[in-house]
Amino acid sequence: MAIVYDGAYTLLLPLIKRDQLCLNARRMGILNKEGERRQIELLEKAGLPTRIKDIDTSKIIKALARDKKVKEGKIRFILATEIGKVETRDDVPPEIIKEVLQEITI
After folding, report:
1. Predicted TM-score of the model (pTM)
2. Structural domains in the chain?
């Protein structure tokens, strides 16, 4: 499923960021449980994966830290606030990022 480049799962980053869009937002208190459920349901209806097998969370976090959208050392995420609305945030705590990665791992 993943191609490893320089020790990072580079092809998984778009999937991880998409899933984190709603999972991080719920944990940050900007998306309610119903909004999260609806977003995941839409991803599944579109045939997009919502879980990943066998990832090394530390490698993913390192890859996220090298992403082109990192600014001033902070990983920026686009977080859903509701269906069709998003916010760009750079204050997602590392603990939440790790929790989300663990939650989307099969």
Report:
1. 0.67
2. 4-104 (1.20.1090.10)
